[in-house]
């Protein structure tokens, strides 16, 4: 059985790691390279960096940052945010990113997924999906959760898989920030219809939530931010806990 992955997520604004609520009241909490180095040495399996203020004029800044990260850390990392065309992805992969993540751009132009998978390989392409359950239907949102996409979660996940996505990063907007656990029932249902790895995001608050998302939610990886940034959960301790619960992890 493949080991389950623990993935810290770092939001980046103007070259600094930031933390806030719904991208408001953002506070700088440190250097992305230093954070990445810490997580690498602490036993994280991968990292995700999201450029939350991505614009064309800041793309050079981000690619420079990616070069710094790639030179300093020894674990794979994914970069997302504002990747709207093939050249954006190519720039970041050339700078040293192991994978790129697309969300709104894939919704607005689904053929972008086909093109990226064909040019770079499926293993480099992560499609992030933000969705909210409304009256029993999981509806997909774009624009950082601000714009209804007119898509349903399960059909969209199947479509991007068919188009060549190598992984799906699913964030439940209902659970995000609650620290009450992941959307395990929905994750399990997604896992049952997909053949590619599924990363769970939204709801991590304690170690038990990670056990649940792997055992009941059938996720291949679990992503979290604040519980790791503020050391509410230490990754070595989390991995020991999961190992004791018979969850296969890299120790």
Description:
The structure is a single chain. This protein has 251 residues and is of the alpha/beta class. It has one domain (5-244): Aldolase class I (TIM Barrel, Alpha-Beta Barrel), CATH 3.20.20.70. It contains ten helices and twelve strands. It has helices at 32-42, 59-72, 86-95, 104-108, 111-120, 153-163, 184-193, 207-215, 226-229, 235-244; strands at residues 5-13, 16-21, 24-30, 47-51, 77-80, 99-102, 125-134, 137-142, 147-152, 167-172, 198-201, 221-224. An eight-stranded parallel β-barrel has the order 1-4-5-6-7-10-11-12, surrounded by seven helices. Helix 1 runs parallel beside helix 2 and helix 2 (59-72) runs parallel beside helix 3. The protein starts with a strand and ends in a 7-residue tail after the last helix.
What attributes does this structure have?
globular, 10 helices, alpha/beta, TIM Barrel, 12 strands, eight-stranded parallel β-barrel, 251 residues
**Cα distance, first to last residue?**
15 Å
Largest sheet, if any? 8 strands, parallel, barrel
β-strand amount: 25-35%
Tell me the number of strands: 12
Order of helices and strands: EEEHEHEHEHHEEEHEHEHEHH
Radius of gyration (Å): 17 Å
Number of domains: 1
């Amino acid at each position: 059985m493949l080991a389950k992955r623990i993935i810290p997520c770092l939001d980046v604004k103007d070259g600094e790691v930031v933390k806030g609520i719904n991208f408001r009241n953002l506070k700088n909490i440190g250097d992305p390279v230093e954070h990445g180095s810490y997580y690498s040495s602490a036993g994280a399996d991968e990292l995700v960096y999201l450029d939350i203020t991505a614009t064309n004029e800041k793309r050079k800044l981000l690619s420079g940052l990616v070069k710094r990260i790639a030179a300093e850390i020894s674990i794979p990392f994914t970069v997302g945010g504002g990747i709207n065309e093939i050249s954006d992805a190519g720039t970041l992969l050339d700078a040293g990113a192991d994978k790129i993540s697309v969300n709104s751009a894939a919704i607005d132009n689904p053929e972008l997924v086909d093109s990226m998978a064909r040019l770079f390989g499926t293993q480099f392409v992560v499609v992030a999906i933000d969705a909210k359950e409304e009256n029993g239907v999981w509806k997909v949102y774009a624009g950082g959760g601000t714009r209804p996409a007119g898509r349903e979660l399960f059909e969209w996940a199947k479509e991007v898989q068919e188009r060549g996505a190598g992984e799906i990063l699913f964030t439940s907007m209902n659970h995000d920030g609650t620290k009450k656990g992941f959307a395990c029932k929905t994750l399990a249902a997604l896992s049952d219809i997909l053949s590619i790895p599924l990363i769970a995001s939204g709801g991590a608050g304690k170690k038990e939530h990670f056990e649940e998302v792997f055992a009941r939610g059938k996720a291949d990886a679990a992503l979290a931010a604040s519980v790791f940034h503020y050391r509410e959960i230490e990754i070595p301790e989390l991995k020991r806990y999961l190992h004791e619960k018979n969850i296969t992890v890299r120790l």
